[in-house]
Amino acid sequence: MKPLHLIISSILLINNWTYSQCDSAAIFAEESDNAVCTEIIGNVKYVYANSIPNHAAGGLNGNFSVLGQDDTWAMCAYPTQGASTTQLYGDDEAQGCSTSGSYKFGVAENGVLYAPSSTEYFEILDSDTGVATGEYNYDWNIEAVKAFGMNSQGAHLNAKGEYHYHSISIDYFTKTNGVNLGIDGTSFSPIVGYAADGFPVYYKYAYTDANDSNSAIIAFDSGWQLKSGNRPGDSFSAPGGAYDDEPNDENGDDGLYIEDYEFIQANTDLDECNGRYGVTPDYPQGTYYYVLTDSWPYIPRCFNGAHVDESFLIGPANVCPASSADTSCSANPSLSAQKINFVNGIKVYPTVVTRSFEILTPINTNQENYQLELLNSMGILVFQKENLKTQDISSLPNGVYYLKISVENTSVIKKIIINSQSNN
Question: Does CATH place domain 337-418 in 1.20.1290.10?
Answer without folding.
Answer: no
